[in-house]
Design goal:
The chain has 2 domains: 187 residues, Alpha-Beta Barrel (TIM Barrel); 58 residues, Winged helix-like DNA-binding domain superfamily/Winged helix DNA-binding domain (Arc Repressor Mutant, subunit A). It is globular. By secondary structure, it is an alpha/beta fold. The strands form 2 sheets. Strands 1-2-3-4-5-6 form a 6-stranded parallel sheet, covered by helices on one side. It has a two-stranded antiparallel ribbon with strand order 7-8.
């Protein structure tokens, strides 16, 4: 992992705008355009331009931003993304020790500074805010952690808290999944803030219809998605719009050919691919 807080044009902004326009021309009736990815979206220096472009050209499409929150420490960044409709910042540590273990931040970053940045963003933006808290067994799942998370939620006052935990193989195989009773107790404590708490991790399956693709295009989409994160056949069917029965057989062929690998996980068989 490359640790950096440097903002720059990691991908050409104009090319990003072109690809966005092409995608939205093909699929104009979507609910949200979401900034996410394997890195931090706010580190891209052109994100303000991209957000403004989408808001102006596609006023009926809402913009969602997933972020670790660190770049929000910069007032300019807060202003650039203030126009989004929904922001989902992460707060995975209830104190410094947990923050370091959970997020392995760049040197000098603190959980207090990140929380303060999220609070400042809340003051200047009318965006809905869903605060995501990721829980790992033995790291931030104690009763004391829950009470500290409660205090942060009271300060930030998000519209909702999403309480998450591992549901696919992680990059660290020793990361444990808290028992359901532990997750329920943490949710109950955080709920004392008066903010709704949603426990997430599973996915509701929504199947789409996929257009005719060549085998190469089919493989490329699967490889790109599995290189970003481990995926089950259900995950791929949902996110790519593929039909699951055909997809499962194709995944087995791809694994046999060496394009992807598989492993058992909390929700069944997960597929991985190496980043190109």
């Amino acid at each position: 992992t490359d640790q950096t807080t440097e903002r720059k044009e990691y991908f050409p902004t104009e090319l990003a705008l072109k690809q966005i326009d092409e995608a939205l021309d093909r699929h104009p009736h979507i609910d949200f355009f979401t900034f996410s990815g394997t890195g931090e979206p706010l580190l891209h220096s052109g994100i303000g331009t991209i957000i403004a472009h989408i808001k102006k050209k596609y006023p009926n499409i809402k913009v969602c931003l997933l972020t670790k929150g660190v770049p929000l420490m910069d007032p300019e960044v807060r202003r650039e993304c203030a126009a989004v409709d929904l922001i989902v910042p992460s707060l995975d540590g209830s104190n410094e020790e947990e923050f370091q273990k959970m997020n392995r931040p760049a040197k000098g970053l603190t959980i207090r500074a990140v929380a303060d940045a999220v609070i400042e963003f809340r003051k200047i933006s009318r965006a809905q805010m869903w605060l995501e808290i990721f829980i790992a067994e033995g790291v931030n799942d104690s009763a004391e952690s829950a009470k500290r998370f409660l205090q942060y939620v009271r300060e930030i006052q998000p519209d909702k808290v999403q309480l998450n935990t591992l549901d696919r193989p992680g990059t660290e195989h020793n990361v444990g999944i808290p028992a359901p009773a532990v997750m329920a107790e943490i949710a109950s404590v955080i709920g004392e803030s008066g903010v709704p708490v949603e426990r997430i991790g599973g996915r509701a399956a929504k199947r789409g219809e996929s257009k005719e693709l060549s085998t190469e295009e089919y493989n490329d989409r699967i490889i790109a998605t599995c290189a970003s994160r481990p995926c089950t056949a259900d995950d791929l069917a949902e996110s790519l719009g593929f039909q699951k029965p055909n997809l499962e057989a194709h995944l087995r062929r791809m694994e046999k050919a060496g394009f992807i690998t598989s492993e058992e996980g909390p929700r069944g068989i997960y597929y991985r691919a190496e980043k190109k």
